[in-house]
Amino acid sequence: MEKEIFTLDDIYEAMMQSRDLAVEQGFSYNSVLKIQLATEEACTNAYEYSRNRNYASCAVKWKAAPDYLEVIVRQEGSAFSLRQPENAVMGQRGRGITLILNLMDFVEMRENKGFIELIMRKIKGV
Amino acid sequence: MELTQTEICNVLEVRTEVTLKNNAHFKEKMAEMLLNNLKDSILDLSNVDYLNSSALGIIADSAIKAKQSDRELVLAGIAPPIDEIFEIVKFGTFMRLFPTREEAEQYLTTKILL
Predict the structure, then answer these.
(1) Which residues of A110-123 are buried (b: 16+ CB within 10 A; e: fewer)?
(2) Alpha-carbon separation of residue B50 from A38, B15, B98 (angstroms)
(3) Yes or no, beta carbons of B57 and A95 under 8 Å apart
(4) Residue A43 CB contacts under 8 Å (≥ 6 apart), including other chains
(5) ipTM here
(6) Which of B50, B53, B61 sits opposite A33 (nearest CB)?
(7) In this predicted model, what pLDDT tens digit does every residue of A19-35 receive, in sequence order?
(8) What is the pTM of this model?
């Protein structure tokens, strides 16, 4: 299942898709919220990055397995840091990656031929 | 989102999730609350289960602006499930977070009396 992100409405639909899949799979209420939020943050980051550089659309896809749900966001560009700041961020921006890394159980970035994929996995029961 | 005033503070009570759909409206209401800089302010999130990083940015920026006016913005309703989000971004290191509105109001009342 894959969805291209062209607009903010597409991001919202992707969030709802993540939520619906998580509910279907029997994730707890808290985990559903976390998956939805990680989807919003990752898609918003990819959308803004792509727009700022006039890249083509970014995309999100899902992989549902018996014991986990993966949300994968794909965009043009090169890998970026997944490091969290040590101290609180005081400004208006810069918290998205920190949230993703803490809300999801497994986060990995893969780079391939000018594209990057951010793979975020939530494990059931964790 | 409902903005009210008590004798001691301004209160913005949010009753919906804060997503990219209503970030702009949330920002407007926060700015409106801080216009009254004769009082401290409470952002009451008791009925909020979800807020995104943009909302967190608006809150952080508002806390700084309040401080610049020699006022304080505190948060109420910081309880599950959103308390974990505020812990992740370490908001407790630069602003006061309360589990209930009553505790937030009690803090601001005590502040005035001292």
Answers:
(1) eeeeeebbbbbbbe
(2) 11, 10, 17
(3) yes
(4) A5, A10, A11, A14, A15, A58, A60, A73
(5) 0.90
(6) B50
(7) 999 999 999 999 999 99
(8) 0.92
